[in-house]
Every structure is written in structure tokens, then in C-alpha cells.
Predict the structure.
Amino acid sequence: MTEFTPLASALGGLMIGLAAVLLMAANGRIAGVTGIAVRILPPYEDSETPARLAFVVGLLLAPLVYLAAGGSIVQTISANLPLMMLTGLLVGFGAVYGGGCTSGHGVCGIARLSPRSMVATTTFMSVAILTVFINRHVL
Amino acid sequence: MNANTSKHLRTAASLAAGLHFGLGLIVSGMADPAKIQNFLDLAGTWDPSLAFVMAAAVSVTFVGYRAVGAQPRPLFAEKFFWPTAKDIDAPLLAGAAIFGLGWGLSGFCPGPALTALPLLAEGTLAFVPAMFVGMWAARFAR
């Protein structure tokens, strides 16, 4: 069980949206975490690597800033390390192969009313729901 | 504004956006894989929170992109880099399906996994390096 948090979740979503708008207004770039993260690795196609690295550093700083400000972060993460490595591979591969993840397709793409992103989001949501159903209720 | 100044400003804006994005993930509860998996568990311990995150994030981005898109150019760059891909093709569907499988089994997608990394949970430390390997491999598979 996790607690249903409509207000905190809507507030967090608002912050995510503002971050996406900021990145477009300032740099003209989509806030897709997958597209940004994969391009901090070589081969480099342009000279925007420092900006992408800075975005990733920002993500990494977030929990430290949050804790320093007195917040507490609750996490329940599987300690099944082979499973986490396998799923990490699947998530990384699938997100790049499919051209985006929850942020790039799910937030930015849907906000642009992109049919491609709507299809991708519907696909990964459906597969994830089916996966959890089988994993928790069938196996 | 000279090119070098713009580049530094882009890096600073990107840092601010990443930090704000990460704080949004934490405030929304999305850095906790258990909350994601419970959202996906419609038949069990369903937690609808993720729907509120998505609804708010998409609404703000929809309005914000309209306002920003009406400007001639971004503040610190020559032009807007709006995505140009339109195809609904096999890689899009296969990639999204593979991503969905991993997301459902772990409760992690790239943003929350990176945001959770400094908290040093064992599962996150196993997930993130593998995620980068997968990302890197997919660039050559496409």
C-alpha cells in the first residue's frame, strides 16, 4: 500500500511541467530525460553536452536539496539486484529505441498533442499495467 | 549576447530545469517505485496519484508550450528544437513495450531512477548503470 496523495502529486506535476516549459523557453529543448541522459554518453552529435550534463546534475541534486531543506523521502525499492539490473537494461533500451519515456512522450509529447507520443504512452502504460497484473495476481 | 555567454546561460538554465524537475518528482511521490507500481496495479492496491502528476504536468506544459512557441526564439538559443519525428513505426511500439515491461517490473523510469540515485538504495545502484548500458546499446540498434 502507498498513500494516495492527490495534492502533493498535482503540485509535483505542476513543478515538472514548469521545468519542461523553462527548458523550452530558455534553451528551446524538450525535457525528455531519456533523450538528455543518452546524449551525455558518446558519440556526441552536437556541442550541447554540458547543458545535458547540467540537467542530469540537477536531477541528482534534487534529493540532496530536498533533504537539506528538511524534507523526508520515502522509497521502497526492490533489493533483487539481478532483477533491477535486467529491468534497468529493459527501461534504458526500450526508452531510447522507442524515442522517449514518461517525460519525453508522456508529458512533453502529449502536451504537444503528438499522435506518436500518445501511441507510445498508451503502449508503455498498457504493457506496464499488464506486467504488474501478471506479476502480482497471476504468477 | 555572444555565443559563449549563451552557452553558459543554457547550461545554467538546464541545471535549474533539472533540479526543478527532480524536486517535482520527489514532491509528487514519483521517486518511490512502490507508488508507480501501485498506480499500475488497477486490480490490487491501486494508488491513483500518478494520474494527478500527469494531469498537472501535461496541463502546465500544454499552456506553457503554447506561450513559449509564440515567441520568435528561445532566450538563450538560436531556435526551438521541437521534435520532428512523426512516424508511428515498429521501433516506437517495440521500444515502448520493452520500456513498459521494465517499468512495470521495477517501478522505475529514467527520471525517477536518476533522482533516486544519490539516496544510494542497492536496487537503484544496480538499476542506473544497467539503464545507461541499455540506452547506449539502443542508439546503435535503431
